[in-house]
Amino acid sequence: MIKKEMIAMLLAGGQGSRLGVLTSKLAKPAVAFGGKYKIIDFPLSNCINSGIDTVGVLTQYRPLRLNQHIGIGIPWDLDRSIGGVTVLPPYEKSENSQWYTGTANAIYQNIEYINYYNPEYVLILSGDHIYKMDYEVMLDHHKSMGADITLATYEVPMEEASRFGVVITDEEGVISEFEEKPEKPRSNKASMGIYIFKWSVLKDALEELKDVPSCDFGKHIIPHCHEHGSKVVAYDFKGYWKDVGTLGSYWEANMELVDIIPEFNLYEEFWRIYTKSDILPPQYIDEAGKVTESIVGEGTEVYGEVSHCVIGSGVTIGKGAVVKDSIIMNGTVIGEGCVVDKAIIAENVEVGANCDLGVGEEAPNEKKPNIYSFGLVTIGENSIIPEGVKIGKNTAIFGPTDKSEYPDGLLKSGSSLIKVGDEA
Fold this sequence. Notes:
single chain; alpha/beta; seven-stranded mixed beta sheet; seven-stranded parallel beta sheet; about 15% helix; about 30% strand
């Protein structure tokens, strides 16, 4: 019988609706990050760097490109005959076939997969955080505390604590209470959504709560185990960690990569971030081109000015264009004479010549003010912007658009122009 000490289960089925048009056709963990990577590369790289060679990736929402990216796990050295990476979508069973309805329900539907490896411990991970963590150190802490469950925690500013599930611990780090997104938090120790369970404890809890609708770790499994006498402890993580679940935090995390001294270092030899790389020619910067404080991907051609940006691969920045404080993803073309200020532009977008993005004063987005904010211009993949138009702040565009849809040549701040599929 196969016996692994610890295997990882990576939850990558989320829609990521707070990223608006960026995830209309794409699972959140497959969204680009840092010009070269996908968000899922970070937990996968953490696994292999921590010596974990068996990872189940649970997918659900629009999984095609995520599956293509993961493949058989070659970039992460996870193409193993025993273990390696396995993509686990929902599947038809003889009875009660259903989608994954909650984080714990997704694990419950894959008990057979976990049992096959007969692990002592199971590591539960989210597929949408940017960080580097040695899970082996967390496991050592779990063992030394004699814990049944260990939650990775991160100290957040007290004023932000109400956005998270927070825990209250004693001096030893044993958790006494949980508060799920409390209005008036009594602690700033936020759960990172990273858990180590004794498999025997988790399995029992999953079986007992299998009929709970939308069964979730934070709301159901961990409180249930705690009430039934399991020892639950906190593992305080001190490194960089960013939940890139909103457009603002996603933009901010990318921009931090190009600070003079980046808080998050992508260049450390001893803790590499691995990804699937296409074979592309080198970048080209024209005589008239200028790049400062930016990441620029392979195969990108710069004929204009780029400042404090994260630019993907195969991008073209036209002559006389000025692009600043922006994220431009793979294959996008920015036309000649454009000005792009504080934008997130997804893959394979065409921005016509002499456009001006990020103009005027901010105004709340008329349709989704809680998503399209932070003063950003957000453009979904494969969109077309006609030449010579101006686009305001807190705006969203998705799909091929033409001049007639820009009154007086302007999409005013707070407007949305959604031409493809569902309202994003």
